[in-house]
Amino acid sequence: MDKLRITGGRTLKGEIDISGAKNAALPILCAGLLTADTVTLTNVPKLNDIATTLKLLGQLGVRTDRASDDTVSITADQLTALEAPYELVKTMRASILVLGPLLARFGEARVSLPGGCAIGQRPVDQHIQGLAALGADIKIEHGFVVARAKKLKGAVVRTDMVTVTGTENLMMAAVLADGQTILENAAREPEVVDLAELLIKMGARIKGHGTDRIVIEGVASLHGATHDVIPDRIEAGSFLCAVGAAGGDIMLRRAAPATMGATISKLQEAGLTIQTGDDWIQASMHKRPKAVDFRTHEYPGFATDMQAQLMALNTIADGTSVIAETIFENRFMHVQELLRLGANIDIDGHTAVVRGVDRLSGATVMATDLRASASLVIAGLAAEGETLVERIYHLDRGYERMEHKLRALGAQIERISS
Ligand SMILES: CC(=O)N[C@H]1[C@@H](OP(=O)(O)OP(=O)(O)OC[C@H]2O[C@@H](n3ccc(=O)[nH]c3=O)[C@H](O)[C@@H]2O)O[C@H](CO)[C@@H](O)[C@@H]1O
Ligand SMILES: C=C(OP(=O)(O)O)C(=O)O
User: Which of 51, 88, 117, 357 is flagged as catalytic?
Assistant: First the structure.
């Protein structure tokens, strides 16, 4: 298994490009199942999760073509299967996103239940209840969600909590349903908006995306489209935390600062100087960070996917911070590894109290999930001496060539392949 070796203590300087958003690209690839025409996507990041999704689509009989580094075309004109098997679903929870499109267009689907993972149980009951409300006959059988519906029918669906992939699955199902669907308590994340924009280009009739009430008028069929995936706000935020922890001056190009309000304002509170344009972010840090309290929240609040990275910055900050994780019940797995680097953190249920230390010292640590991995890399950049981050396959799920980008910024970091 590959590892990262980081020698900490170097400031960061330079420019890098931000990749397309993983969490936008995944549902958007699945939306290709909704039409027999070709859907062409640009700014698709090169990530293991994208490779897994393309493999899954391939198993369903979808023709996929990576025309260039960041362009992918998908054509779902001759499906050979309507089933997402456990082997693929277990590695990536977002596989559940084939359920809505398959059911809407082909009238049936069988998708393995995604298992629990490091950050929480992550049930899919809201996806199931929502599809049932749209008229699907849906049950769990032998570890699979098995769904059938001759034709879905529009309905008012109010999810019990805000769910990002739940909203995406239901939106993709509703675009081909008979009549009107209203999704209440819908997720407002930019990635949901990006999916809606693609669906509209494909002929869907959607209004209200970006609010908590999405109204969809079903249409008989959708057609092909071309779409540029939005920039990854979590990747960009992770690099901002990196410069906050290591110090320096960086420029992030092809970014979307308009989607990053909560992250940028917390980092400014921590002492970073940040300037933004339409598609760039310039950040400088030349002092010790200041501890910042925060709580995770649905968009436009502070993203749970940024919690671990900002915690890493807080570990070396001046002062004590209180961090509340409100979205996932078990998303502090990085804490025990940050402790190995010399951090001072106490956890009490959903709250972590971080007392900033003067310095971290390099050690061998283990990545436990995607953003936990990023937090360990950030801490390693700031730590004295050498940090070895093990099990970085988690990182490879969601960051495109992170070590290359950090090296371009002057960090001393290398991949050790084994
Ligand atoms: C591929 C993708 O886009 N992943 C993102 C998506 O995950 P994902 O869409 O899986 O996360 P959700 O928004 O659904 O989860 C929010 C909360 O609702 C709960 N829940 C959700 C659905 C359901 O049927 N039942 C239920 O109880 C979850 O366990 C969690 O506690 O949003 C999360 C929250 O912003 C991010 O951390 C993930 O990076
Ligand atoms: C939790 C994440 O992803 P996923 O939902 O794909 O597990 C993430 O991107 O931080």
Answer: 117
